Amino acid sequence: MFKPPPTISHTPKSPTITGTRRDTMPSSTSGDDTETKATDAPAELSAVVDDLLDNLSKKFATVSSEMYEKMDAMSTRLDAMEQVLNNGGAK
């Protein structure tokens, strides 16, 4: 006997996000949580993206500062080495 293929639902699922503000938000007491979740999803995603961008910005600033400090130290050492070489190798 021929059986028709099962019906496939094309309803998009919202992404599961853990460790975010959603975990600390109180749950809705209404019977229709699906509508609440659907309307909260863009705001939640926006908050997560904002947090991610803030963290990346802080990390970039830290790495950038460290690189400038190391380049400055290297420049100072190269200047000292150049001075030693110009004086005939004597300190």
Q: Uncertain regions: pLDDT < 50 for 5+ in a row?
A: none
Task: Write the element-wise H/E pattern from the N-terminal end onward.
Answer: H
User: Which secondary-structure class do the elements indicate?
Assistant: mainly alpha
Oligomeric state of the chains present here: single chain
Q: What characterizes the major β-sheet? A: none
Shape: rod-shaped
- Give the end-to-end Cα distance, rounded to a whole number of Å: 97 Å
Number of beta-strand segments: 0
Number of helices: 1
Radius of gyration: 29 Å
Average pLDDT level: 77
Short description:
The protein is mainly alpha-helical. It has one helix at 33-86.
Description:
There is one protein chain. The protein is mainly alpha-helical and 91 residues long. The protein has one helix and no strands. The relative contact order is 0.07.
List the topology elements.
Blueprint: H1 33-86
Task: Give keywords.
single chain, 91 residues, mainly alpha
